[in-house]
Amino acid sequence: MRPYSPLTIASYIIGPVLIIASHIGSLLVFTTGLSWGALVWIVGLYAIRMLATTGIYHRLLTHKSYQAPASVLWVGSVVAAAAGQMGPSWWKAHHLLHHQQADQPLDPHSPYTPPRGIGGFVWSQGGWLLSSRFFPAKLPVDVESDRVLRVIDRLHFVPLVALGALSYGIGGVEYLGAFFLSTTLLFHGVQTVNSLSHMAGEQPFVTDDFSRNNSLVAVLTLGEGWHNCHHAFPASSRHGITVKAGRVIYLPDPTFSFIKLLQLLTLASKPRVPTEADLLKRAKDRLQPSGITAPVKTLANS
Ligand SMILES: [Zn+2]
Ligand SMILES: [Zn+2]
């Protein structure tokens, strides 16, 4: 039995409905065309909501990779909810399960389970949201015990609808179409972490899954594509790290820069980053030459 009420279930179902509506609404840009202002609106809404998803939902709310006042978490969660990709309880529940079960049968969105190949890509790129996996088996206690986060979770669709109304108010049908297109691109951008970052790219660190460092996904998601590093060090506020020839190399990570900016503004503190010794200890190119068998999965032995 699900740990939540029929009203919560109804509220959750609105999420995928609005994402499908955004896909259809994007077609409006073919009738209106796009001015430079509308293009800036698309990119601006994409970047701000992506940063809230990666910097607040993912690295703060879910992994607690840095500390921040509750007001930052609340405001950031409202902005992240405006991405149309559900509220804080739903988001954290699914993402924690992904880390616990990465690329195993209970992973909610692995490209390797249940289908593979192109079917696996479609599944991990958003298909899973249209299955029974969409409903988390349990909601995280810490988020549920925060009344503000709980309200944001159940009313997750309000910031998205408000942003759509604001877009229409600013620039009529053209900006409404731009808002839909931005929301659709943002949805697929975030989902590439679930798909491409488990399918293609380098694996500099030893992990018990198929996570990869994928530079295309890193660009699309403002730093989240360095996903092999993230699976190796989930509590790190910095994902953009790799190891080559026994040396630690830091990669562009706009979300980490955003966290550093918050720190400069005294809105964040104590960002956690692994030491170089820890990084080298988990590096594949350090383990393999020494003859130690690294427990890294490949498709052949999965
Ligand atoms: Zn992953
Ligand atoms: Zn994570």
Automatic annotation (TrEMBL):
One of its GO terms (molecular function) is oxidoreductase activity, acting on paired donors, with oxidation of a pair of donors resulting in the reduction of molecular oxygen to two molecules of water. It is a multi-pass membrane protein. It comes from the Bacteria. Residues 37-235 form the Fatty acid desaturase domain. Its cofactor is Fe(2+). InterPro entries: Acyl-CoA_DS (IPR015876), FA_desaturase_dom (IPR005804). It is found in: Membrane. One of its GO terms (cellular component) is membrane. The chain crosses the membrane at residues 12-32, 38-60. Keywords: Fatty acid biosynthesis, Fatty acid metabolism, Iron, Lipid biosynthesis, Lipid metabolism, Membrane, Oxidoreductase, Transmembrane, Transmembrane helix. Its main location: membrane. One of its GO terms (biological process) is fatty acid biosynthetic process. Belongs to the fatty acid desaturase type 2 family. This is Delta 9 acyl-lipid fatty acid desaturase. The lineage of its organism: Bacteria, Bacillati, Cyanobacteriota, Cyanophyceae, Oculatellales.
